[in-house]
Amino acid sequence: MLITPPNTGILIPIPQYPLYTATLAQHHGVPLPYHLDEASGWSTSLHEIEAALEHPQHAKITPKALVIINPGNPTGALLDEVTQEKLVHLCEKHNLVLLADEVYQTNLHRPDEHPFVSFKQIVSRMKSKGGYFDHVNSPDDILARIYKMVSVGLCPPLSGQIGVDCQVRPPKPGDESYPLWKKETDTIHAALASRTRTMSERLNSLPGISCVNSPGALYLYPKVHLSDRAIEAARKVGKEPDAFYAMKLLDETGICVVPGSGFGQKEGHWHYRLTCLCPGVDDYVDALANFHKRFIAEYGAAEE
Length: 304
Hints:
Elements lengths: L7 E7 L4 H8 L3 E6 L10 H9 L7 E8 L11 H14 L2 E5 L17 H8 L13 H12 L6 H11 L9 H27 L4 E2 L8 E2 L2 E2 L3 H9 L4 H13 L4 E2 L12 E4 L5 H19 L5
Parallel strand pairs: 1-2, 1-3, 3-4
Antiparallel strand pairs: 5-7, 6-9, 8-9
């Protein structure tokens, strides 16, 4: 990796997609976690990032990059443009590379209310140095190293190259395939938006669960308030409390969710990530709700 020699720090959002900490571990980098604000719809807090940079434990670490996942994984949160501009200024102030993971940018549930704007647009508009992986304004020696790194890899198969080309260059108005592509993608996005809304409303109606109605990506990330009895039962079998809850859910319903302890979370907070992809969402949430009620009946409700 170009930016992860020993003692190099990379700012990572919490909760985060575990690929980042795993990659840093492989290349001897140091994750510098900053917490997202659940109470504000999992927004990105510049105060949290500054606090992570100034943390005494990081005194011997050189921060080199800031990871932003937008829309969020696992949270589905979307950044507003004002926050994005402030993040670019923060990167300039601290000489950080901005690593913007924007893979879910077309998965928007309420685009009129929460539109997506890429960091490339923000950076270009601000005439700031940087960009995303097309490396706008990157030095020639950095580009040379990247080309060298890429050239030693095996070439993907033709079908993979065609698939990526279709993904990054979808049909445009006037193209023969555009009407069908537009109809299919609009149908998919409408279904995801409807399922997300239904699932978040149903989850929020349950005792001991709170869930942000995510405006993007493919996920919801509800918070589960667990009783002391449930936490004690989990510890007795050597599991994190949210992993204990998730395994019981899988055993009883066949529904697989990812416990929040796999993404990172604040001490004493418990979550799980579930997708909004499944058809038959009412039956799916019925099973979730019925399981949760049985779990509460067995282990008791948490004290709020």
